[in-house]
Amino acid sequence: MKALFFIAFAAYAVSVILEFTGTAFRKEKLLRLAWIAFIAAFALHTVFLAARGVAAKRLPLSNQFEFANGFAWGVALFTIAVCTRMKTDWLKVAAIPVTLLIMTYAALQPMEIRDLMPALRSAWFGVHIGSAVLSYAAFVIAGCIGARYLILSKKESDNQKALDQMDFLSYRLVSFGFLFLTVVILSGAIWAEQAWSAFWTWDPKEVWALITWIIYAVYLHLRLRGKKKGRQMAWYLVIAVFVVFFTFAGVNTLLHGMHTYG
Amino acid sequence: MKKVLSFLRSMRFGILLLSLVAVCSVIGSVIPQEHEAMWYVQNYPGTYAPILRLGLDRIFSAWYFIAILVMLCLNLILCSIVRIRSVVASSKTERERASKLPDTVRLTPEGVDKLRDHLVAMRCRGEKIGESEIFTKNSFGRYGSFLTHLSILLTVIVGAAALYLPQVTDQTCLPGESVMMPDGTEIRAYDFSIEDESGRLDFTSEIRIKLPDGRHSETKQIRVNYPMSFGPYKVYQQTYGTAGSVTVRNPANGGEDDFTLTDTVFLSLDGVSGIWYQALYPDYLQDPSGNVTLISSVSGRYANPVYEIIVSEGGQYRSLLVFPGDEIETGGLVFRFNDPVEYPGLRIKRTPPAVNALLIAVFALMTAALYITFFCDPILVKLDKDGYAVGGPKPERMRVELGAGFEAYERKDEEP
Ligand code: HEM
C-alpha cells in the first residue's frame, strides 16, 4: 500500500515538472501532459486513500500522515473542480506544486496504520476532520488565486474584468472555507464536550483554528468595506495561507496540547 | 458623543476587536497557560516578570480579554440593530428602485431573450414594473449576515454560560461502590473494563445515577466519547486505575474479608504482625540469573502484576514480591493475593438545565446562517429591451456571473 502512495506522489511530481517546463517554455503540449499526470495522480491518490480506509476500517484521516494526505487530496480535488468548471488554467501553475508540497510533508510523517485511540472513536470524527480538509483546501486554492492575481495585476492593467472574476472566485472559495471551518470549530466543540466534558479548553489547536477563523472573518469584512479590493486582498489571502499551514502542521510540532495524536 | 457611538458600532471597531482577540490567542497559545507562578520563574527566567504582571499566564481569563469580548458583543449588538433596520427598510422599496436603474450592461435583443430564459431557469420570480422586468430570488438571503452576527453573539453568551456554570468533579469509584454528590445524588459503578472483546483498549464503566428524589437512570455503559446524562448530571469515562486485591482469612473463626488496596496500608490482627501493602506493579522483567526489574507504568491491562509487600512478624520485617494466587500466613491470618481490580476515574458534571441544548441550537443557527449568507445571495436583476442592471443588497455574484456568461451578447458599440 505504501507503494501506491509513492506512485501517486511520483505522478504529482511529474505533473509539477511538466507544468513548470511547459509554463517556462510556453509549450501547450507539455501543459496538457502535466494536467493528465495530475489527474492520474489524483486518481491514484484516491485509490490509495480508499484502500487505506478499508485496511484501517475507518476514515483514513486520523494522524498527521493521513490528514496531510486528505489535505493534499482536497487541494487536488478543488484544483480539478475549479479548473474544469471555470476554465481557470492559470490556477494550475500554483495549485499543482502546492499539492506536491503537502504530499511531501505527508511523506515525512510516520506512515503505519494505528488503532484509533478511544478519544477519536466518535461519530464526530468524520464531520470534524472531513470539514477541516475541505476548508483548508478551499483556503489554499483561494491563496493560489491571490498569488495569480498579484502577478497578473502587475503585468497587465487593462484586464480588470478577469481580475474582478479572480477576486470574486477567491472570495467564493473563502466563503466555502469559512463555512466549513465554522463546522470544524463547532463540531469540535460538541465533540470535546462529549469526550472531555468542556466545549472549549483553549487548547493550542482550538486556538489556532479560532485565529484562522478570525483572519478569514476579517478578510470578509475588509472586502465588504469595498475600499480594500484587489491587490491588498490578494496579498491578504496569500499570507493567510501560511496561517492555515501553521494551524495544520505547525501547532502539532511546535505547540503542545490535547490534539497531539501522532 | 455621536462620533463615539458611531465608532463603537462601526465595522472598523469590530475588526479591531477581532484582531485583538486573535493577538491574545496567539500569545495564549505560545505561552503555556495556567501553570503555577514558580513554573514561569523556572521556564522563563528572563521574561517571567512581565508574563505574570500582565496576566499572560492566564490570558483567556484576564480582565482585558474579557473586556475585549464584552466590547465585541456590544459592537455586534449596535451594528446589527442599525443594519437590520436599514435592510428591512430597503427591502420594501428595492424592486421599485431597481425598475428605475439605468442599464449597466447593454445586450443585443437575442442576449435579452437568453438572459430572460436564464433567469427563469434559475427559478427567479419575474414581475413587470413599468417598462422593466424585475427578477428576484432568495429574498430572505439578505438576513443571512444579521442571523450570522446574532448567532455569534449568542455563541459568546451561551458559550460562556456553558463553560463557567457547570460544576465538574473528578472521582474514582471502585466497581460495586458509589460516589455521593453534595446534593444527595448517588452515582454507582457496577462494572469496569479497559479492553473490549478483541483486546483493544476501550474503557467502559457500567453506571447508574440516582437522584435525591429517588428517580434513577437505567444502568448503562459509558465509554470515552459516550457519556451518560441523567437529570442535571453527565458522567464521563475519564481515566482508569488499577488497585490490588487481597482476601484475608482468619482460620481461628473462619471469618473472611476482601480488601481493595490503593494506598499503603497495614493489615494485621494485633497491630504488630501482619502485612504492609506497599505497591502494585503492572509487569516485571527477569534476567537469566533471576534478578527482577519492576516496570512501573504501562498503558492498558497489567500483564504480570506483582505486589510489593513488607511482612511484619513479631517486630521483624522482610520485603517480599508476591503474585496473584500466592498466599502468605502471618500473625494468625492468611492473606491471599488476587488478580488486581481495575476501576474507573469518572468525571461528573452538573450543568443547569438547557444550557447545552441551547448552545447546540445556537451552533446550528450559526451554520445555517452562514449557509444562507454565502449560498443564498438575494438576487435582483432588472431587465429591459436594451440590457440589464443588477441591484439588491448583494449584487456582486450576479454581476460577475452574468458579466462572464453574457459577455458574448454585449453591445459594445454604444456606451450605456
Ligand atoms: C466574530 C465575528 C464576526 C464574524 C464571524 C462575522 C461574519 C460575517 C459574515 C460571514 C458576513 C457576510 C460577509 C459576506 O457576505 O461576504 C458579515 C457581514 C457583515 N459584518 Fe460581520 N462578522 C463578525 C463580526 C462583525 C462585527 C463585530 C461587526 C461590527 C460592526 C460586523 C459587521 C458586519 C457588516 C456590517 C456586514 C455586512 C452586512 C450585510 O451584508 O448585510 N461583523 N459578517
Overall description:
Chain A is mainly α. Chain A contains 8 helices and no strands. Chain A has one domain (2-254). Chain A has helices at residues 2-24, 28-56, 64-86, 92-107, 124-155, 160-196, 204-224, 231-254. In chain A, helix 3 runs antiparallel to helix 4 (92-107), helix 5 (124-155) packs antiparallel against helix 8 (231-254) and helix 6 (160-196) runs antiparallel to helix 7. The longest helix of chain A is centred in the C-terminal third of the chain and has 37 residues, at 160-196. The model of chain A has no long low-confidence stretch (mean pLDDT 90). Chain B is α+β, with helices and mostly antiparallel strands and 416 residues long. Helix content of chain B is 34%, strand content 33%. Chain B has 9 helices and 22 strands. Chain B has helices spanning 2-8, 11-30, 37-43, 48-53, 63-99, 109-121, 144-164, 355-375, 396-405; strands spanning 105-106, 125-129, 132-137, 167-172, 178-180, 186-195, 201-210, 220-223, 228-230, 233-250, 255-261, 265-268, 274-281, 283-286, 292-295, 306-313, 316-322, 327-330, 333-337, 341-350, 379-384, 387-390. In chain B, strands 4, 9, 10, 11, 18, 19 and 20 form a 7-stranded antiparallel sheet that branches. Chain B has a 5-stranded antiparallel sheet with strand order 1-22-21-3-2, with helices on both faces. In chain B, strands 5-6-7-8 form a 4-stranded antiparallel sheet, with no helix packed on it. The two termini of chain B are 45 Å apart. The mean pLDDT of chain B is 91. The complex binds protoporphyrin IX containing FE (HEM). Protoporphyrin IX containing FE sits between chains B (11, 14, 18, 72, 75-76, 79, 83, 87, 145, 148-149, 152, 370, 373) and A (217, 220-221, 224).
